[in-house]
Batch of 4 targets.
Target 1
Amino acid sequence: MGPFLRTLAHKRDLYAGGVMTLIGALALTQVHSIGTLMHMGPGFFPMTLGVLLVFLGVLIAINGLTSPPDQGDQVETKKNEWWGWACIIAGPILFMILGEYGGMAPATFACVFVSAIGDRTATWKGSLILALAVTFFGVLLFSYLLKIPFPIIRGFTL
């Protein structure tokens, strides 16, 4: 393997930029009616996100190509982080289940709390405070400011 290919084998930024560019390009292929700035269509936001992802992906890939090989690119984790992976996957699943049967507040709290305890350095107290704060501001933003029709707690009216 030549030095150029050996360098490319350890370039996480190049791969990450390529994946972001690909996802952005795929998002752009799904855009239909964008409308105008005054009357935005349903495709305006996905188109904007797709363009942004392509732009950032290209910048990250260029950075990966032009930077010298980093020692951090070659470091592999010594053990798998099964607890963290399980918590990160369980958080959105809990949000979907509790959102359907419990409402926004319990779903948001469970999602944030379970995802936060997946961090190796997180404490139960810190995760609890984070989950309470995100739930409070999430309910404030989505229920009261944006008026999203998602009950705060199912079966309970305020």
Target 2
Amino acid sequence: MRRHLLWVITASIWCVSLVPVEAQDASTRLIGTWKLVSAKFQGQESTLSTNATTLKHFTPTHFMWVTYDKAGKVTRTGGGPYSFNGKTLEETPAYGLGSDFDVVNAKRQAFDCKVEGKRLYQNGTLSNGTTLEEIWELVPVP
């Protein structure tokens, strides 16, 4: 009986590991913390500050972004509900601070979005007309 149970558990784990990432629920691929590693705004490469870090957090229903300096002081942030169908990411910022938040507050933002491995690619146009191309890397769980 124990041997049979062990075989069933092992086979179940092996079968689950064969499910391709594409077959997973689209929104679960976003869940986690992502660090901004590259950005273009209006087609121009942005030099990311070495004195600040920008993170984006996704839960099953909400997102938030935050930029903080080396002392840990938050300089801008925003967040709210989102949806993701595997191709289109729709965010509606509902809370935040800073000039970045002011231009998108309560306005639906739609982006082309894909997850490849530990990278998230987000491209689109903000509601104020600013185009962006961002690359985020998944932050490993400690």
Target 3
Amino acid sequence: MVNSEKQPEKKGKPQYSPKLLQNYFQMIWRVSAITVSTMAILGGVGYLLDKAIGKFPLFMAIGLMIAFPLSQFIVYRVFTKFSKKISQSSKK
């Protein structure tokens, strides 16, 4: 005879493992660092070009406009590698 009663589902706050939270924080720091550093490098190069040539906001603005999509592409590439690494470690 099979017991047809179902176990009651536990409701409340979801439980997160420390490893999962550590992975999320690593991901947040990586995304932030990549975005800020890419924009700082290309914006800085644009600023130096503006200072040397004498057309102040032109090259810095161009550098920042190029930096943001480039940083998002880099984030995408890093995130896909990072998520594959996490999914492989969770299967073990």
Target 4
Amino acid sequence: MTTKKMSNCLAPIVLAAALCSAPSLGQSDGVSPALIERTVDSNLSEFFDLLALPNDAVSAEDIRKNAEWLERAFRKRSFTTRQLANDGKPLVLAEYERKVAGAKTILFYMHFDGQPVVPEQWAQKSPWIAALKHRIAGGKWEEIDGKAVGTKLDPEWRIFARSASDDKGPIMMFLSAFDALKAAGMEPGINVKVLLDSEEEKGSINIGKVASEHRSLLHADGLVINDGPMHETGQPTIVFGNRGNTLVRLTVYGPKMNLHSGHYGNYAPNPAQRLASLLASMKDDDGRVTVKGYYDGVRLTDAERKVMG
């Protein structure tokens, strides 16, 4: 099940507000913890509306409904939006331009699709009907009366719903950060772009193609990825750097039946040993990838380039 601790909503909003904020004329006292808590409380119903939308990317219709909802939500915060075509499962690009000379542009990445779900495995009415729960005796979770929505939230409550944390939670945090800035009389100190992926849980198989087609639209001075596991301490974490992966299918051919080692050993190649040798040759003892051309197109610092030889 997907849960989100209410207190964990606050720190990311503080971070987003600090990263984006700059004073505007007639600014108030800034984004205070009390203002952030009020914003979280008031946005809970909107968050529940977002969680109510099924978002498994196997359904293009569901993905389009999510994309349309997100466009409305970002436009409400004065963003301009557009859908980026993707075989019926559009990505969403939202932009907030300050039009200030020299302002940097930061691209925020989040995704709104979710993992497949088996409703019968959920201890609540539906994984698409978000439930507030608190822990009771025996370590079990008990649902709180829905009337609590829109009231003061206990930081020890949890939200149970598909994608409540991965990754619709960060989307709602981001929107709440803008609400808090506006309430504080502040403006972003940067130009903001937000790319909302529609197939992350399916491997983002088309994002490279979409990014290439819209290179100029996605151009930015920096990238912030609002997705990832929580640190084991339970504290919000900023990670400087993010690794991707490369999927490769290797087929190793060998004899179609067992061969007697006394008769065929040494001159009949062992496919398991060949594969092990091949895999071992792809990295050296210091962890550097040895495949020719692997680092082509990768921007390295001088220190990294020196290490890479």
